[in-house]
Amino acid sequence: MAFAYVSLVGLVYLSQRALLFPGTGAAPASEHAEWGENVSIKTPDGEMLHGLYSHGTSGKPCVLLFFGNGDRVGSYGFLAQALAARGIGLLAISYRGYPGSTGSPSEEALLADGIAAFDWLSASSKSEIVVLGRSLGTGIAVNTAAQRPAIGVVLVSAYLSVLSVAQSHYPFFPVALLIKDPFRSDFKIAKVSQPKLFIHGRRDDSIPLSSGEALYRIAPEPKQMLIDDGSGHNDIWNDRTVGEVIGFVEALK
């Protein structure tokens, strides 16, 4: 029994990045952009990130999107279209190791990708930037906003930390000793002084609402939280939540 447990722990340790970053793959970026235009962003350590970019109207902000761990940039045409209708731009990046981007994912690498994407967008658009993170991407959004002058932050299905979420899903494993990529948003949120919108589905069984609420409680003002009673984790985007994002972005000064 002990041998079986140790073997299982070893398997979890070795496979954890495959579990955390299931969207990785060697697939190239499509030559025909699903929305916006294809862009390439070079990171300081020499990796190339694929992104899709929809230009906004002059004087309007641009949203920088960090998606969930199983997402694709092409899946956000609905958001690009809704934002474009209000003159707001959108840049969504494919993390390193994800389709169209070089390299391999890790917490350190993805946090670097977030900074590189912000700096590229700041130089390319001259627009004010709102950082939006979804699920795994909320940790990247928090880190980016703590280090760069975003004018606002939207956190959709946020977590206190990946460590705490993993502990809730795997209570019989010594997760704190095993985890390579803890994404401690709880350690960084105090530096995010910008206006913040939290959105979470009440029925979320991947990242519990309690985790998002815990991060919200320790986040500094100004902040607001929308709990969508009818949504879980993978159906959080709907007319209401998209509308709340647009309203939040347009209200920023």
TrEMBL record:
InterPro entries noted in UniProt: AB_hydrolase_fold, Hydrolase_4
Coiled coil location: none
Domain Serine aminopeptidase S33: 60-162
The protein, known as: Serine aminopeptidase S33 domain-containing protein
Gene source species: Rhizobium giardinii
